[in-house]
Amino acid sequence: MTTTDTTRWRTIDIVVASVLAVAFGVIFWAWNFVWAATEGAFAFFPPAQSVIYGIWLLPGVLGGLVIRKPGAAFYCEFLAAFISVLLGSQWGAVAILQGAFQGLGAELGFAAFRYRSFRLPAALLSGALAGLAAAIFDQIRYYSELELWSARVPIFVITVLSATVIAGAGAWYLTRALAGTGVLDRFPAGRDRALI
Predict the structure, then answer these.
(1) Burial of 37 (C-beta count, 10 Å sphere; 0-12/13-18/19+)
(2) What is the secondary structure of the chain as a DSSP string?
(3) CA distance 162 to 146
């Protein structure tokens, strides 16, 4: 295969990435309600709520692992955020910009491996960088007035850890589970299953 063959998006890549993004856009919309409903559960230490943040970063990592083309992680994360806004996100249109930052972070994780490795370390790095992008964005947009050591630093660290575990490892395991069913057989992720 030439480089252009491995980086050019096929119609099926666009369709599957879009389906993943739309599905996660609906999940995001629902997760917004879960986030609001769980605030009381974390009253003992509000920054701890960031432990569930990683769900919002899953489509970027999952899209990168499934599609395995430059731009896939960004596309899936950004489109999912856009769909959640269309459905009525309580965060408003700023969630679109947030999705772009998160998608860029997820994309950089795969770019660091030059789009040649889609194993667990690449997924973890993609999740961590998506979490880092999210944490930086949130610090500027939402948390700049909070106390540094008792709120901002814990939120930052927990967000990155949540993204690494939920989005990074979670997307990797989800990709393996999907590949095991045969639904990814037209993708390199599905062909990897045959080699195991």
Answers:
(1) exposed
(2) --HHHHHSPPHHHHHHHHHHHHHHHHHHHHHHHHHHHTGGGGTTSGGGGGGGGGGGGHHHHHHHHHH-STTHHHHHHHHHHHHHHHHT-TTTTHHHHHHHHHHHHHHHHHHTTTT---SHHHHHHHHHHHHHHHHHHHHHHTSTTS-IIIIIHHHHHHHHHHIIIIIIIHHHHHHHHHHHHTTTTTSHHHHHHHH-
(3) 20
Mean pLDDT, residues 129-135 taken together: 98
Structure tokens at 159: 């967000």
pLDDT classification of 91: cutoffs 50, 70, 90: confident
- Residue keyed to tokens 């590949």: 179
Contact 66, 16 (CB under 8 A): yes
**Model pLDDT for residues 21-80, shown as the tens digit of each residue:** 999 999 999 999 999 999 999 999 999 999 999 999 999 999 999 999 999 999 999 999
Q: What is the pLDDT of residues 99-116, one digit of tens each?
A: 999 999 999 999 999 999
Token digits for 14? 């666009």
Residue identified by tokens 């393996």 is 176
Q: What is the DSSP track for 30-70?
A: HHHHHHHHTGGGGTTSGGGGGGGGGGGGHHHHHHHHHH-ST
Round to whole Å and give the CA distance between 89 and 101: 17
d(CA 165, CA 172): 10
